[in-house]
Specification:
Layout lengths: L11 E2 L4 E4 L5 H8 L2 H4 L9 H8 L2 H6 E6 L2 E11 L15 E8 L8 H16 L4 E7 L3 H9 L3 E12 L3 E11 L8
Parallel strand pairs: 5-6
Antiparallel strand pairs: 1-2, 2-3, 3-4, 4-5, 6-8, 7-8
Pfam families: Acetyltransf_3
InterPro entries: Acyl_CoA_acyltransferase, GNAT_dom, N-acetyltransferase
GO molecular function: acyltransferase activity, transferring groups other than amino-acyl groups
């Protein structure tokens, strides 16, 4: 089945960045920042060796959801968009197929604090709603990952859930988790 991101014309420029589909050739560039402890502190899978990163990065389903963020030709981060079906009753389930998405991001820590993640995530939200026609986006993070939930708030996402010790972190144990979301009719969010 064709991924919804395949239907768009890439690359897509923002004011300072370029978003494009990930390719196997991006393996080394993404490893450069994903191997850093401050990068993989909050990622779902902390690949600690190049071989682990290579195996995970080159999975077909991973590459399908992955976008690369470039600044002046240099890879500074990546974004994910997993298009999903909404929960629905059986009689209307066909109307709930591929209507929402889960967002994710990892930015090279050397480029933090300059608004690049905000710019890139805003662009992905815009692509998701305006170009792909999704109706809802959501993202989750650990409560302790303040940079991530602050980013969600900056781009206009609403906190929908604060769950107590529901999320298991690889080194910190059970932590609180946060869920944020945004509807198409709420976009564009005030800047």
């Amino acid at each position: 089945m064709r991924h919804p991101l395949d239907t768009l014309d890439w690359p897509i420029p923002t004011d300072r960045l370029l978003l494009r589909r990930a390719a196997p050739d991006d393996l080394d560039a993404t490893w450069a920042y994903r191997r850093l402890p401050e990068s993989h502190e909050w990622t779902m899978a902390a690949t600690t060796t190049y071989a682990e990163h290579r195996e995970r990065f080159l999975r077909e389903e991973r590459l399908a959801d992955l976008l690369i963020v470039e600044l002046d030709g240099r890879v500074i981060g990546d974004l994910t968009l997993q298009v999903q079906d909404a929960w629905a009753q059986e009689e209307v389930a066909d109307q709930a197929k591929g209507v929402q998405g889960e967002l994710g991001w990892t930015l090279d820590p050397g480029y933090g604090g300059k608004g690049y993640a905000t710019e890139a995530v805003r662009a992905l939200i815009d692509i998701s709603f305006r170009s792909l026609g999704l109706r809802r986006l959501h993202a989750d993070c650990f409560y302790d990952n303040e940079a991530s939930w602050r980013l969600m708030e900056r781009v206009g996402m609403r906190r929908e859930q604060h769950a107590v010790k529901d999320s298991l972190h690889r080194t910190k144990g059970w932590l609180d988790g946060l869920s944020y979301a945004l509807l198409a009719e709420e976009w564009p969010a005030p800047r």
